[in-house]
Amino acid sequence: LTKQLETMDLQRDAALDAGAARQAESSSAASASDGAAPRVGDGEDQLSLQSMHTNIKSVLVHTPPTSTASSTKKDPPVSYLPLPSVWVSRWVDYSKKYGLGYKLSNGLSGVFFNDATKMLLETDGDSLEYIERMRREDGAKYDVRKPQSLKGHPPELTKKVTLMEHFKNYLDETHPNRDSPLHQPNTVPSTQEEGAGGVYVRKWMRTRHSIIFRLSNNNLQVNFFDDTEVLLWADKPWVTYKGKNKQRNTYNVADVTTFPELSKRLKYTKDILSQLITTQ
To answer: Structure pTM?
Structure first.
């Protein structure tokens, strides 16, 4: 986002962005061979997207026009809600050749490869999971997770393990300690996020104004290119926002209608969600 964000028609641009996002998402979808037991599939993901969209839409209907909101209140509402237990804190897009590398706020590192397989490396630097996309006979897709080791991986994973290490080293060197959990004392996992150490990026897409991460706990994170971020909780009507002041806070969606900086970005997110729901 640039200064144009303040005046541009985000609904129009979000629809265009979502069209590009659908193409990127469909082109990366892939079937995988038989493996371990499945985790969360597309069905639960779809329900979460619909719930998020409903929560935002019901609130934005009652949001005053930008000019009115700007004149009444610009400061964020006071909130004592916890932060999510994990989010994407750093990322690098090298999808022209290999895929997307990222670092999570809990210290885990991950890669979403161009063939839609994924890797998640634990903080011990050796334990990892290799995650493949499966397709059932009815066409529904889901992920399976296979435990591996950085030092004892099978030969067919050598290239991907090497890329995993390169992505991790690059992110550690260029953005050390960013969003460290040690600096987030209000981080408390919700019931839905218990055991969130294994959360990974299940899907992602890049638009003209943002990069969007769909996490395996069904939370949705939108990182705008002006360094603001929106994270929608899958199990609560909450939104965590990293604002222009670089602070990260969680709000009830219903409380942000008079906070233009955030409500504007929620409107953009709602339009993206609308397009995703209608095409899945």
So the answer is: 0.79
